[in-house]
Design a protein that fits this description.
The protein is built from nine helices and nine strands. The protein has about 290 residues and is of the alpha/beta class. The strands form three sheets. Strands 1-2-3-7 form a four-stranded parallel beta sheet, with helices on both faces. Strands 4-6-8 form a three-stranded mixed beta sheet.
């Protein structure tokens, strides 16, 4: 992590007028084992960027901060209403708490220093090139080795999934049409249980002749201890962004197939190019 002066010099050198802040520690499991790392990156790191930007008005015209639907906490019950941007923040794990704290800093710098900020809260993003610590690429890598997918608890926790290109289009819409000082939820309505993701991936692998037909789908599922607290579901209302003309374009079934095909075409050597401090695909366990 750089300091504000160093980052400010970069902004000046390249005459940067827009900052889209995507950097974060984002793997929830890791936040239980090393919460201070999440605070340092997601809270202090965000403030460093804000400090660099606040001294560069009007050069920097937009500061877009990527947050998460997890800051709202659990949307308990399948019939619970989708949460709008006005919902109270009630994070339940260290990762979500660090992102909520970052959101609070962004809002404070908007009010106190006039930083031209917009907050974007996205649900689970998936697609090609995603590092295989996240649920979908992790399961794909396990099934490629004909190993079972590992699920926390019963595997019935649900999440909503947004294909990467739809997430990028959401950011692009906010960049060009969003209002300074606003918050925008970016999410799909596709809600899937973790166990059903396993089964869907097994079916895709079978269709490509990469898994034997004689084994039952659930033989590729292995259960492990649940998190200390595992939100049953998240549910956000993206109506505000849809009013600006955005909508998801890639359905979950099609997006899942495209994602699987990319990982099949790229072996683990692809990830050797990345940060050696990241967890290796083979070591990743649990969801």
């Amino acid at each position: 992590m750089g300091d504000a002066a160093t980052l400010g010099a970069v902004l000046d050198r390249y005459a940067i007028d827009t900052v889209i802040h995507l950097a974060a520690e984002s793997h929830v499991d890791h936040s239980f084992g090393d919460p201070f790392r999440f605070t340092t990156t997601n809270v202090v790191g965000t403030q460093v960027l804000l400090e660099a930007v606040k001294l560069r008005a009007p050069q920097v015209r937009r500061f877009i901060h990527m947050s998460t639907d997890e800051v709202y906490g659990e949307a308990a019950g399948a019939d619970a209403a989708d949460l709008t941007e006005a919902a109270i923040l009630a994070p339940t794990n260290p990762y979500a708490a660090s992102k909520a704290a970052g959101d609070m800093l962004v809002g404070a710098y908007l009010k106190s220093f006039g930083v031209p900020a917009i907050i974007v809260r996205c649900n689970n993003v998936y697609g090609p090139l995603q590092f295989p610590e996240k649920i979908i690429p992790k399961f794909v890598r396990l099934l490629q080795r004909q190993q079972p997918c590992t699920l926390h608890g019963t595997g019935k926790n649900t999440r909503r999934y947004l294909f990467a290109s739809d997430a990028v289009n959401g950011l692009d819409t906010v960049l060009h049409r969003g209002r300074i000082g606003s918050i925008y939820n970016v999410g799909s309505d596709t809600e899937v249980a973790n166990i059903d993701i396993c089964r869907a991936l097994v079916r895709i692998f079978r269709a490509r002749g990469l898994l034997p037909d004689e084994k039952d789908d659930d033989e590729y599922i292995e259960y492990t201890a649940d998190r200390p607290f595992n939100d049953a579901r998240y549910a956000i209302d993206s109506g505000k962004l849809r009013q600006l003309g955005w909508a998801p374009e890639v359905g979950f079934a099609a997006g899942l197939e495209r994602t699987v095909d990319w990982y099949i075409a790229h072996d683990d050597s692809w990830w050797a190019r990345g940060d050696s401090n990241n967890e290796s695909p083979a070591a990743a366990k649990g969801v």
